[in-house]
Amino acid sequence: MYGYSNARVKAMESFLIDGRQMEEIMKAKDTGAIIAILYQMDYRQDLEEFGGTSIKEELIDFALSKNLARRLGKLVDISPTTDRKLMRSIVGKWDLSNIKLAIEAKGRKASYESISKYVIDEGRYNRQVIKEAMSEESVEALISKLMVNSPYTAILRSAAEEYKKRKRAVDAVNAIDIGYYSVLGSTVSKLRTVHPQSSRMLKVSIDVRNLMLLIKAKRIGIKFTEIEPLIAEHGTIAKEELSKMYEGSKDLESFVESIKIADMQNALDIYKKSKNKELLSFEIALRNAMLKDSVSLLGHSVLSFGSILAYLYFKEIEVDTLRIMIHGSMYGLSTEEKERLMVWRKN
């Protein structure tokens, strides 16, 4: 059943950037040099759409988003018929990501152009649909427009109800997250018996989301009871354990030290030395641990749904890493500084 699907995924995997290539990109002298490297890889078609090797720096994010959309769009199609509904529920993250971008922008009265480069141009909520929704006069009208014939009607209705209470875009966005992770939790349960390795990968991805939510909350001193409604179920770390970790730590640093699913020490050292106390190093450490765990689980699985799911994670983090490397070059970061921000190294 998975012969065709896995053959297609293996072909797509062959275009992923490996460790040596990412090192080359990291050491590139400027943005132009990075573009020249990417032009010889899977990004050529997308770069050409926005100017080729002469692409303007402000359009690079568009090209990266286009490439991610192009690749993710194939995953549902190549999944076996029996698994397509499961894959749609997972890939729905990017549909909802576009919607959240639109709601956040509308909430602060920003234009579509301010978010356009981050919109994934794929699926039901592609760039054109989001642009049209952004032309609505209010957040309520925007959500209402996107709700028409939507597979996410229940999630969007909840978002609209939460927004109505206090007129805050963040409440609507949080409602969408809760709805998505509730659906993902159901997917985890369905995968547990038929695709246990894939189920494990999704559970760890939920852990990463929950831990980053708590890291941000700890930084500003929010009580666990206030953040608890936003905690997603079905991760490998139960809500009770997260509560114990959170309440048992006196500050952000001690909370990070209590995290056991990843080696957080290097990330903590970077955080302590940084001037602006950025949290990116923590997310990188957690996502690297997630991928390491995924690779380990998939090492013994050639023909499975997990192979398709693993590609999804690899591709997402590849694009995230490229964004960091390109923006790092634009802002004049040194090779050493960029190396610390490497999200993923595929060997």
Structure description:
The chain is mostly helical and 347 residues long. The chain has 18 helices and no strands. It is globular, with a radius of gyration of 20 Å.
Instruction: Extract low-pLDDT stretches.
Output: none
Radius of gyration: 20 Å
Question: How helical, in percent, are the residues?
Answer: 55-70%
Distance between the termini: 28 Å
What is the approximate shape? Answer: globular
Secondary-structure element string: HHHHHHHHHHHHHHHHHH
How many DSSP helices? 18
Instruction: Outline the biggest β-sheet.
Output: none
Class inferred from helices and paired strands? mainly alpha
Would you tell me the overall average pLDDT? Answer: 87
- Number of strand segments: 0
Strand content: under 5%
Please give the structural blueprint.
Elements: H1 3-13, H2 19-27, H3 31-38, H4 44-49, H5 60-78, H6 84-107, H7 127-134, H8 139-147, H9 153-166, H10 169-194, H11 196-219, H12 224-227, H13 239-247, H14 252-257, H15 265-273, H16 280-298, H17 305-330, H18 335-340
Helix pairs in contact: 1-17, 5-6, 5-17, 6-7, 6-8, 6-10, 7-8, 8-9, 9-10, 10-11, 11-16, 11-17, 15-16, 16-17
